[in-house]
Amino acid sequence: MVVVADLVAPVTRGRWRGRGIAAMAGRRVLVLVPVLVAVSAALFAAAAVSPFDPLVGYLGARYESTSAADRTLLADQLGLDLPWYQLYGRWLADLAHGDLGTSRGFSQPVGELLAQRLPWTMLLVTVAMTVAVALALSVGAWAGMHRGGMVDRAVAASCVVLQGLPPFVVSLAAIAVFAVGLGWLPPAGLTDAGADPDLAQVLRHLVLPAAALALSQLPWLLLAVRESVAGNRAEDFVVGAATRGIDSATITRRHILPTSLAPFVTILGVRLPEVVVGAVLVEEIFSWPGIAGAFVRSAQDLDMALLAVLTVGTTCAVMLGSLLADIAVVLLDPRVRADG
């Protein structure tokens, strides 16, 4: 009977834990819908009181030579003179039918524009965050295990300095040193002028923007691992493993690092909005052909079809990413309850 109880108890706990995670995910998804509605409605309302004239972006250099009567006629044809709530209602109706609209600034369907640019943004963010996570786990774990040493102090000081540098400063410094000064890497673009976007060209041009984005996110992640590992070194299970003669590398890998992942994942989830902002700045500086350039231009030109989709999509990605991070924390740490 004891053996049966020992087998049934973990299964029961796992079942209740799974129900708790499902309930948490359901609550978050239910909250997501009104948040997206509120964000999109606020965006259209803010655009209505914006001092920027959307016709400036639409006409470009022709704006000054276009008469006031023609501007009024064009605004009427484009529906720019309608109240914001009518424009918002039209956008929602089109969205409900699967129509993302057409970008005025890029003169192409929004769906087509996203298909062209989104993969490059995903490539940049994936490579940068993979590098940042790998460095944070390896260097942070080593620094936490050797807390107070010279290397640990140097790592902590470097992180403090990097924390105070915005992504655009890191990007400009990388260009100044490695592109302009040393000439090792190209300063911008996806390929060299006139070259086809083959693998070698893309990877070579990806190095600097990915490194800049990774460095801008690395300090927060590395310090989280460092503090968590240093704190777990004094736990009873670590002391017990050491007294049994287990070597420090094994203790770090099998005991300390797994228990330190939950706070690390939490920080990673909290930093998601900063990752989005950092990617926008890095793409703009390095002229990376991702979604960031379209985001900035749509905001400048009040290209609402594109701006609304990008804003709602970004909000949704951040909230879902935060949910996945919370689920990972619950799965990693049995002490955490899935009631968020």
Briefly, what is this?
Helix content is 77%, strand content 1%. It is mainly α.
Write structural notes for this entry:
This protein has helices at 2-48, 54-59, 68-78, 84-96, 110-145, 150-163, 167-181, 199-232, 236-243, 248-270, 272-286, 291-301, 304-332; strands at 102-103, 108-109. By secondary structure, the protein is an all-alpha fold. It has a domain at 113-301: MetI-like fold (Orthogonal Bundle), CATH 1.10.3720.10. It has a two-stranded antiparallel ribbon with strand order 1-2.
Tally of strands: 2
Strand content: under 5%
Helix content: over 70%
Largest sheet descriptor: 2 strands, antiparallel
- Give the second-level CATH assignment, the architecture of the domain at 113-301: Orthogonal Bundle
Structural class, please? mainly alpha
Mean pLDDT: 79
Report the CATH superfamily of the domain at 113-301.
Answer: MetI-like
Q: Low-confidence stretches at least 5 residues in length (pLDDT < 50)?
A: 1-11
How many helices does DSSP assign?
13
Task: Predict the CATH topology of the domain at 113-301.
Answer: MetI-like fold
Major beta sheet, strand line-up: 1-2
Distance between the termini: 36 Å
Radius of gyration: 25 Å
- What is the H/E order? HHHHEEHHHHHHHHH
> What form results from the Cα inertia axes?
globular
